[in-house]
Design brief:
Blueprint (H helix, E strand, L loop, with lengths): L1 E3 L5 H17 L5 E4 L4 H13 L4 E2 L8 E4 L1
Parallel strand pairs: 1-2
Antiparallel strand pairs: 2-4, 3-4
Helix pairs in contact: 1-2
Length: 71
């Protein structure tokens, strides 16, 4: 499962991402790939939102610097 953040502002992601992660977790769609693009700020937002809800983040096994794996 993927969440693609392209086209969203940092503020939109900060407002919505935690709920999206919880929803996907409750649906059994974990681990999940969050597509961030190359924005270091967007990656930080994803990492903080995941940590706040008790999830872990890492880079996927297949090298892609524009994706964060949330589990």
């Amino acid at each position: 499962t993927e969440i693609d953040l392209h086209g969203l502002t940092h503020g939109e992601v900060e407002d919505k991402l935690e709920n999206w992660l919880i929803l996907q977790y409750n649906l059994g769609n974990f681990p999940i790939h969050v597509i961030t693009g190359n924005s270091s700020r967007m990656k930080t937002i994803v990492e903080l939102a995941a940590k706040k809800r008790g999830f872990k983040t890492s880079e996927p096994l297949i090298y892609n610097s524009g994706v964060v794996l949330v589990s």
